[in-house]
Amino acid sequence: MTCLELNTRQNEILDIVKGNGPITGEQIAERLHLARATIRPDLAILTMAGFLDARPRVGYFYSGKKPIKSVADGMVDMIVANYQSRPVVITENLSVYDAICQLFLEDVGTLFVVDQQSLLTGVVSRKDLLRTSIGRTGLEKIPVHVIMTRMPNVTYCKKEDTLISVAKKMMDSQIDSLPIVQEREHGLEVMGRVTKTNITAAFLSLVEDQDV
Ligand code: ADP
Predict the structure, then answer these.
(1) Matching Pfam families, A to Z (predicted)?
(2) pTM listed for this prediction
(3) Which is the most buried residue in 22, 120, 166, 207, by most CB within 10 A?
(4) What is the pLDDT of residues 109-152, one digit of tens each?
(5) Domains and CATH numbers, the chain
């Protein structure tokens, strides 16, 4: 079911039921100076959309529920700013060994790498670190900038972007997270992080308010 824009009469009916419910269809029609048959489709819509509940021999009453929105309607309204996480940022010369420690300490899957000016230069994922570590010693001597995915190949987003656009970027690039950036004169400052977990949480929030 899609999200409904209620018309004037449907809003009037909603107000009447809110103030007077439970109330029969006949009584609602009387108040509006209309025939019962005229408002029948409006009552059907309001009931199906979850605004009103109807009980036989009792009448209509206000459900207090939010109207049912389709997942698609709910998702298109969601913007990154409302579903972001704190970014974990490291500098380019941090060793692979220390980066692995950061990954565990901060409990994240991806680290964003910045230069001396705190501008984004790259991304290091857990598999990047694992790949470098297998069968090798001296991880404390390898700086992360040697193994990171570097600019301009980093996929990023802005806080006003939609979650849908972020989800698409994640799927297209086969990545788990994106830095949220703000443009500065000489590059991009990392302001936040959006991950597949954030997207999943947003998805779940669409149904949490409803009886499913
Ligand atoms: P993992 O490698 O742990 O499965 P990802 O799937 O996120 O994590 O990363 C896959 C590859 O993509 C890694 O090599 C990583 O450096 C790179 N990567 C991760 N995030 C981004 C990003 N936002 N932009 C560009 N490349 C990224």
Answers:
(1) CBS, HTH_11
(2) 0.72
(3) 166
(4) 999 999 999 999 999 999 999 999 999 999 999 999 999 999 99
(5) 8-63 (1.10.10.10), 76-202 (3.10.580.10)
